[in-house]
Write a structure and sequence with these properties.
With about 750 residues, the chain is of the alpha/beta class. It has 33 helices and 14 strands.
Length: about 750
């Protein structure tokens, strides 16, 4: 009957734990260890008898640089007597179990080893047995080995005695005398290892501690003795559970005690990923004309949410500063050590492996790489603009999140992503299955507070009238990115009225009129043509940078780069827009230039969901400043475009305060034919939309005098907040709760709350 691992340790249980811990320290350090001297430790197991190991106390697996494996199987004894005396059961047991290990079908001749690890043993006997085994390993044949014991051979009487004792015990174990070949083979693979743990001033614990110290981050090097104690405790506790440790599990287990350097074998990968994170963060502008806003409170809120949730979505309107919050979090994390930061427009490949290859990484197992990053730095995956990741690159993120969700070794990992309020539904299509099992919290990045606006106004006095102007103006100017654009276009001329945008469309027109910065005349026109060219190319290949060779002219590329509108992707080869809003504004004018043929431009671009907001902006402009909004609406509905484009056209006018002044043409269009288009518009309540849009929809609903069933007909299981308790709701109120807003988060694929 197999013996319980809890009982197998016996009197030497503590010493056994120390011996196992010594090998664990070598595992942590990716170092050599006694018993097999040409390979490094890759796995340590304890009490493995129930798993077919005759020598079960400590099993150590080694590998060389070419991944060639070897195994060391040890029985651990506090003290050992080397003799064949019948009363000496310990030595016989070791010989017997070593013989059984040699006879295992998977035993690797000339690679594997077996034997004993001891605390105290007679010095002369220890030396004699080790010499005997060394001779066996140096002799290629049994004949050569036996010649040492022949008349006139070099073997002393002590060595002959030990050899005879071992042969006698082998005969008992085998049940028959062993041949010379068998004795030679047995001794060639036998090891005797003495550990110095038992006496005061022992040398082995300091050696292990020094190895651990070399594995710790410099700031935590002094914690090496504490970590060693943790490793010893771990080894002892695992013996009762037949524990196994590879480096990933060991690192994950002890990382709470101290921060590590990261494995030498992963150091290049970790350094490259950290360098990429630093470069990606550098690409995110975080100032308004040189003034950086302190949004520490958002980082503090993020930290608080990460203590209870595994995913924090940093969410807000375009230009609100979502990416800057992620950037600040990334920069803070880099100060502590390595991190993993992915940026939508920087992704390459169709899997983590192909992405890793594209970045010059080694192809190390993802799980182990993440364990090392988490132990040496911050166990958080940062993703900027996750809602704008192209379909072909989504598997890169899926691979990482899958590893985080599925691996117990990564249960300390968190995910921080930035996305627009309007991007949630898109994400549910490809991330919902994973995010359903993770707790998700939302960090809303709203417009600047009065205090933040005051800070900016002190640095930029010319923006004060706008920052503290009408509510409509504040809604635009208090988005940091928009404030930056306004600051760039500011003209210090008392004779020029202060430009006060009432909507994003107003801001776009001003930006465009100045050639994207502050140009006039022919220069502005030429820059406009360059921006149109850049936007067309970008729309057709959202997943790749804009190749300079693809452009009709490169005359203004340097200027646009100097003005912060473009960034180098590969110097002299490709560029990208510095902010996705700049691309959207430029593509807005691409569609405007096409006029009634704008649908053809969308088709030519492949109908990318990422440009849906541009269509909303075009619709908004046409509704408030054009004359053909209803005609374009009919054209969109009658086209063979996907339904998202009709929805984008319908939503556009709702996003501006000017809509409230003239909602009649919208109402006429969407209320017709028994609210046919209004039903399509109400789908926005299932999606995350800015409050203004939801407010406009509610106002329209009240105007319509429609029954509450209209909401339920589009799949809304609750009545949105703001829908009152009129008699028209009597039937529905029995089944559905009123006065609640559907939940909208990454973790909810449907966006519905019962």
């Amino acid at each position: 009957m197999p013996q319980s691992p809890e009982l197998a340790g016996g009197e030497g249980f503590t010493f056994e734990g120390d011996a196992a811990a010594f090998y664990l320290a070598a595992l942590l350090a990716e170092a050599y260890a006694p018993g097999i001297d040409d390979r490094t430790v890759v796995c340590v197991s304890v009490q493995q008898r129930d798993f077919g190991e005759p020598l079960d106390d400590v099993i150590v697996d080694f590998e060389d640089t070419e991944m060639n494996s070897a195994r060391l199987s040890l029985q651990v004894k506090r003290s050992l007597t080397i003799s064949k005396a019948k009363s000496n059961a310990d030595f016989y047991d070791i010989i017997r179990d070593s013989w059984a290990t040699l006879r295992k079908p998977n035993f690797r001749i000339k690679s594997d080893r077996y034997g004993a690890a001891v605390g105290t043993v007679a010095t002369s006997k220890e030396r004699t047995l080790k010499t005997l085994c060394d001779w066996a390993r140096e002799s290629l044949t049994a004949d050569h080995f036996d010649a040492r014991f022949a008349q006139g051979g070099s073997a002393s009487e002590d060595i002959k005695t030990v050899k005879n004792d071992v042969a006698a015990l082998l005969a008992v174990a085998k049940g028959a005398p062993c041949t010379s070949d068998e004795v030679h083979l047995f001794l060639a693979h036998f090891v005797l290892i003495q550990f110095d743990f038992l006496r005061e001033g022992a040398t082995d614990p300091p050696e292990a501690i020094n190895r651990i110290r070399d594995c710790l981050a410099p700031d935590d090097a002094a914690k090496a003795p504490i970590v060693w104690s943790r490793v010893v405790q771990l080894a002892r506790a695992s013996a009762g559970k037949s524990g196994q440790f590879d480096r990933a599990r060991l690192v994950r287990t002890i990382s709470s005690a101290a921060r590590l350097r990261g494995a030498t074998s992963y150091r290049l990968d970790i350094d490259k990923l950290t360098a990429l994170a630093r470069s990606y963060a550098h690409l995110i502008p975080d100032d308004v004309g040189g003034t950086k806003l302190d949004r520490t409170s958002l980082l503090e809120s993020m930290d608080a949410k990460l203590t209870t949730a595994r995913v924090v979505q940093v969410r807000g309107l375009p230009g609100s500063g979502k990416s800057v919050v992620v950037k600040r979090a990334v920069e803070r994390a880099i100060e502590l050590g390595p991190i993993l930061f992915l940026k939508a427009e920087q992704l390459e490949g169709t899997s983590w492996i192909s992405y890793a290859t594209s970045q010059g990484l080694s192809g190390a197992p993802l799980e182990q790489l993440l364990v090392e990053i988490g132990a040496a730095g911050t166990p958080t995956l940062f993703i900027d603009a996750i809602d704008r990741i192209e379909k072909e690159h989504q598997p890169v993120v899926l691979d990482v999140i899958h590893a985080i969700v599925e691996s117990p070794l990564l249960d300390n990992w968190r995910v921080v992503v930035s996305l627009r309020d309007t991007g949630i539904e898109v994400l549910r299509n490809w991330l919902g299955n994973y995010l359903d099992v993770l707790k998700v919290e939302t960090l809303g990045v709203d417009q600047l507070s009065d205090e933040e606006a005051e800070t900016l106004a002190e640095a930029k006095p010319h923006l004060r009238p706008l920052l503290f102007g009408s509510a409509q103006v504040q809604e635009i100017v208090r988005r940091p990115f928009f404030a930056k654009v306004l600051d760039q276009s500011y003209v210090a001329d008392p004779g020029v009225p202060t430009f006060a945008p009432q909507s994003e469309v107003d801001l776009i027109e001003n930006w465009w009129r100045r050639g994207g910065y502050n140009e006039t005349g022919q220069s502005a026109i030429e820059r406009q043509r360059a921006l149109l060219d850049l936007a067309r190319v970008r729309a057709r290949q959202l997943s790749r940078p804009i190749g300079i060779g693809q452009l009709a002219s490169v005359a203004h590329i340097d200027d646009l780069r100097s003005d912060g509108i473009l960034q180098d992707a590969r110097q002299g080869i490709s560029v990208r827009f510095a902010h996705d809003v700049f691309f959207e504004w430029a593509f807005f004018h691409v569609l405007a230039e096409r006029g009634a043929d704008w649908i053809a431009e969308i088709k030519a671009s492949g109908e990318p969901p990422a440009v849906a907001r541009v269509v909303e902006l075009v619709s908004q402009w046409e509704y408030t400043q054009g004359k053909d909004w209803p005609a374009y609406l009919a054209q969109t509905e009658g086209s063979d475009l996907r339904s998202q484009w009709l929805r984008a056209w319908l939503v556009g006018p709702l996003g501006t305060a000017r809509f409230e002044a003239d909602e009649n043409q919208f109402a006429r269009a969407v209320f017709a034919d028994d609210f046919r288009l209004f039903r399509k518009t109400l789908v926005c309540f299932r999606l995350r939309r800015p409050p203004r849009i939801r407010t406009s929809l509610l106002a329209l609903f009240h105007r319509s005098n429609a029954n509450a069933s209209l909401f339920f007909s589009v799949g809304l299981p609750t009545l949105p907040r703001g829908v009152g308790s009129s008699t028209s709701f009597c039937g529905a109120s029995q089944t559905f709760r009123r006065g609640s807003t559907p939940r909208s988060s990454l973790s909810s694929k449907s966006g519905r709350t019962p």
